[in-house]
Each structure stands twice: as structure tokens, then as C-alpha cells.
């Protein structure tokens, strides 16, 4: 059984860092980028990165905010499903390319960027790119520290932000 290496919230320095990450998350929640899209993006990046903790969090948050189990279950196969809007598909494509930078010689393609820019204004694009960067950083921290999924309760992140 995998055991967590460090409880970041019980480590004084770790708790300070986590609060700052939560503050960025809170700011992103204020962006005009829909929470539904934000949850899909965070879930997809977390799936790619194999972060059980973050998959648990973002699947449960998406459900708590009213997304359907069908959509949540199909995020990993979004290209081969009918339940996502073209706008959401553009965000998911950008998420995948930005998350898999090392796998693509060109990084995020001009085609993928243009597709996202078709649906999102500049502020939303800044929020989307920041969200993707932040969830990738969070995934890497959680996987490295062996943070386990399965016990997250919806609303916990929001409660931590508002402390």
C-alpha cells in the first residue's frame, strides 16, 4: 500500500505554499471561464498525470456542481463522445497539449490555440492557460508526495480557501 510521504497541510512551510496555491485557485474561480469547463480541464490534466488525489477532487467537485456522471466518466475519451460542446472540446484539446509538452515537438499547436481562441476571449485564455499550469503543478506535487484519492469531500477546497 502506498503511504503519503508528507501531509503538506501539517507541514508549516507546506501549509503556507498550499494556501497560496489555493489563493490562485480562488482567483481563477472568479474568472469568466465557467466552473464547468474549469472542472473538466482539471480532471483531464489529472487523468493524464495519473494523480488519483486530484482526479478524486475534480470528479467530485464537477458532480457537486451539477455535471453528469456520463460527462465525468467520458472526460478521458472526450474525442470519442457526444456529450461535450465544441467550446469544451477546444479547452480539453488545449489542456492535453499543454499537459503533454514533452510529448510534442511543437508544444501547443497553432491549430489548437486558434480553436481555443475561437471560443474564449483573451481573459478567459489567460485563465485557461493559468489553470492548466496550476493543475499540472498540483498534480506533480500530489503524485510526488503520494497524496491518495478516495476520501475527498466536495467543498473542502472552497472551505480551505475561505479560511
UniProtKB/TrEMBL annotation:
Domain Carboxymuconolactone decarboxylase-like: 19-97
Domain of life: Bacteria
Pfam family, one: CMD
SUPFAM superfamilies for the chain: AhpD-like (SSF69118)
Family matches, as Gene3D superfamilies: AhpD-like
PANTHER family: 4-CARBOXYMUCONOLACTONE DECARBOXYLASE FAMILY PROTEIN (AFU_ORTHOLOGUE AFUA_6G11590) (PTHR34846), BLL7811 PROTEIN (PTHR34846:SF7)
UniProt protein name: Carboxymuconolactone decarboxylase family protein
Provenance organism: Kribbella hippodromi
Amino acid at each position: 500500500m502506498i503511504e503519503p510521504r508528507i501531509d503538506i497541510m501539517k507541514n508549516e512551510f507546506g501549509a503556507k505554499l498550499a494556501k497560496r496555491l489555493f489563493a490562485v485557485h480562488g482567483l481563477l474561480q472568479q474568472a469568466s471561464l465557467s466552473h464547468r469547463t474549469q472542472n473538466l480541464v482539471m480532471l483531464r490534466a489529472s487523468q493524464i498525470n495519473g494523480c488519483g488525489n486530484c482526479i478524486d477532487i475534480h470528479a467530485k467537485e464537477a458532480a457537486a456542481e451539477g455535471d453528469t456522471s456520463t460527462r465525468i466518466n467520458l472526460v478521458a475519451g472526450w474525442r470519442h463522445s457526444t456529450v461535450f460542446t465544441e467550446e469544451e472540446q477546444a479547452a480539453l484539446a488545449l489542456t492535453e497539449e499543454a499537459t503533454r509538452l514533452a510529448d510534442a515537438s511543437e508544444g501547443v499547436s497553432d491549430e489548437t490555440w486558434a480553436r481555443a481562441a475561437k471560443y474564449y476571449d483573451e481573459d478567459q485564455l489567460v485563465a485557461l492557460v493559468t489553470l492548466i499550469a496550476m493543475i499540472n503543478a498540483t498534480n506533480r506535487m500530489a503524485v510526488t508526495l503520494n497524496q491518495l484519492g478516495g476520501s475527498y469531500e466536495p467543498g473542502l477546497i472552497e472551505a480551505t480557501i475561505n479560511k
